[in-house]
Hints:
The structure holds two protein chains of two kinds. Chain A is α/β, with parallel strands linked by helices. Helices cover 41% and strands 20% of the residues of chain A. Chain A has five helices and five strands; from the N terminus they run βαβαβαβαβα. Chain A has helices at 15-25, 37-46, 65-75, 91-98, 112-123, and strands at 7-11, 30-34, 53-57, 80-85, 104-107. Chain A has a five-stranded parallel β-sheet, sandwiched between helices. Chain B folds into three domains: 2-117, Beta-Lactamase (2-Layer Sandwich), CATH 3.30.450; 170-262; 265-426, Histidine kinase-like ATPase, C-terminal domain (Heat Shock Protein 90, 2-Layer Sandwich), CATH 3.30.565.10. Chain B contains twelve helices and twelve strands. Chain B is rod-shaped and about 175 Å long. Chain A binds chain B through residues 14, 16-17, 20, 23-24, 59, 86-87, 89, 91, 108-110, 112, and chain B through 174, 177-178, 181-182, 184-186, 188-190, 192-193, 248, 252, 255, 259, 263, 266.
Amino acid sequence: MPETSAKVMVVDDEPMNVDLLRRTLQRQFEIIEATSGQVALEWLEANAGGVAVILCDQLMPGICGTELAAKVRVRWPAIKFVLVTGVDEADEVIAAKKAGIVDDVVGKPWVAGQLRARLKELAGVAP
Amino acid sequence: MLEQIKQLLEGSVDAAVVLDPDRRILYYNRAYEASTGLRGRQLAQVVADGARCYEVFPLEICKTECLGCKAKDVGRALRVDEIKAVRGDGEEMTFIVAAVPVELDDDTQVIIETYRDVTADVRIQRRLKVLLERERQAKQNLEEIVRERTQELRHAQATLVHQEKMSSLGRLVAGIAHELNNPINFVYGNVDFLGQYMEDLLGLVQIVDRTELPEPVRASFEEAKKRVEFEFLVEDWRKLLRSIRAGAERTASIVQDLKTFSRTGGGELQETDLVAGIETTLNLIAPLLKNRIEVKRKIATGVPRILCNAGHVNQVFMNILTNAAQAIGGEGWIEVKIQQVDDNKAVEVAITDSGPGIRSDTMAKITDPFFTTKDVGEGTGLGLWISENIVRAHGGTLKWHNHTPEGRGAVFVVTLPIRAPDTAGYGQVRGGNHA
């Protein structure tokens, strides 16, 4: 059982990244996996939001990270959104951060401890 | 006979005088009268008073030699073209002067001088000459302009080609960096879990090892431990994990450098740490320096960040440092000196190498586009040209000289203002040399 009841959704089209994130976070959070933006939206729709934080890759086929963030912010404004990206200086990422659509941007490769701490902070659970 | 001569000359359009051997005027025609600028009676009086020709109407040559006298001496007609004279009213005129000595019936000798007014002809000729010269000049200018424009076009094309190349390279590098990020992330992120799992498994093995086992089980357990070289494995797995992590970290830092290099900021100016930028560039060219070239850093404290197009400015240092590394044949050193100058309004980066220096005959040409001293295929001859343009667009300067009086060791000094002008973003690129 995870330490907290907070749910974190991991969205990435790369299964090995999803595995890694699960491995990194499963002791602290309940993990919901989604392999695309579309899958993520469907799950959220069916579960009335229902996650505290979404951890999402930026570059994915179909709906990209910032697009998903914009939709989520409108539909479920309480959900915190963290973008995981290899191109943290890309224009759309900077714009999304400035516009307040995403709460944080994490560059790859990330450091496990820091990521856990940041997610706990965003999910509002004691570190 | 004199009378006949007078009749002959009277109607002539050329001015004419008949002189006695002493050069007193015996006769003058109407055209002569007009040329002197004296009124009829005045002239008549002067002539009646025994005036000599050079007193009445002096020609330019009268001062040095008298054509009439000469004609008399040689006993034949003489002629001189383009003789200047100032008319009575002050206007400068040009004449063709002819002098003919004539023996009269009474054995006295006279000199007939005629003056043909060619002032207008000379003026027209002169004007024509000027016009022809002007036309020749215009043609030459046109050729010059065509040459210049062709050169400018060539430069512009070269710039475009280079910019396109750099932008393709930037996209390629950014793409590679992104593609490498994911796999590095797996390796880097998973390696700690692998470590944890190994600890857990070894813990289990140790528990079993400490437990009292029935003899056949213990024997086969010990046998298995020997087979897998358990003691060595316990010692080695941490080393293994460390090298995997180090490899991943190193790859991640290369990817980070590539990302920095490819980031041109879309023409935007950004606060940039030059010292860090140069450090990154040195990392990127590490394969060129490896074990061969020592890098000496002389970095002043408190060098401020400067507002510039980071991608372009990094490119400048990349070019200079690459040139320096390539110039050093065997072992050597590169010195990078960074300090504030110009009342702390600018930052100066001086890069000195221990190479052969810049040859004096190429000193002025090294920033010309397409000029290269490298072998075919090694250099495009555009690097320093682009660099100079980037620096110039930032309102800075790029200067170079040799380190020693014997002309060894090139020194490149880049000076950039703390705040570049807004136009620096897109780096206006102009012709080569020090235009």
